[in-house]
Amino acid sequence: MTNNKSMRILAHSFQIYIRKELDIFILMTGLYENIYQLQNEKSLTFLYRAPKIHMLPLNTGAIIDSYKSIFDIDQKSAKEMADAILGRVRIPKDMVRTV
After folding, report:
1. Rounded to whole angstroms, how far apart are CA atoms 48 and 46?
2. What are 14-55's pLDDT values in tens digits?
3. pTM of the full structure
4. Fewest CB within 10 A of the end CB: N or C in the chain?
5. What residues have CB less than 8 Å from 94, skipping those under 6 apart?
6. What is the rounded distance in angstroms from the CA atom of residue 45 to the CA atom of residue 41?
7. Cα 70 from Cα 68, distance rounded (Å)
8. How far apart (Å, rounded) are the C-alpha atoms in residues 8 and 45?
9. How far apart are CA 27 and CA 25, in angstroms?
10. Could you report the per-residue pLDDT of 52-98, keeping only the tens digit for each?
């Protein structure tokens, strides 16, 4: 997620739905700095106040094991793949198993 025109339009729409007391949920993922920048946009302060679930960084060993199993590859290749994504995403650990 990045602070671009499309994301601001989505966030504005979401804010309108909240004001109308509609049952709506949104799941946003992305780099911390991008989320921080968007939630601090002056016209989108509801994102700052919205409840959040903070995820821990992914476990490298678990990712490597999952990649080895899913893609039937060796340790070195799986580690290279895991290293390529670490620090870029935060997802529930269970999702690693379902990739």
Report:
1. 5
2. 888 888 988 887 776 667 777 777 777 776 666 777 777 766
3. 0.41
4. C
5. none
6. 6
7. 6
8. 12
9. 7
10. 776 666 678 888 998 999 999 999 999 998 888 765 554 444 444 43
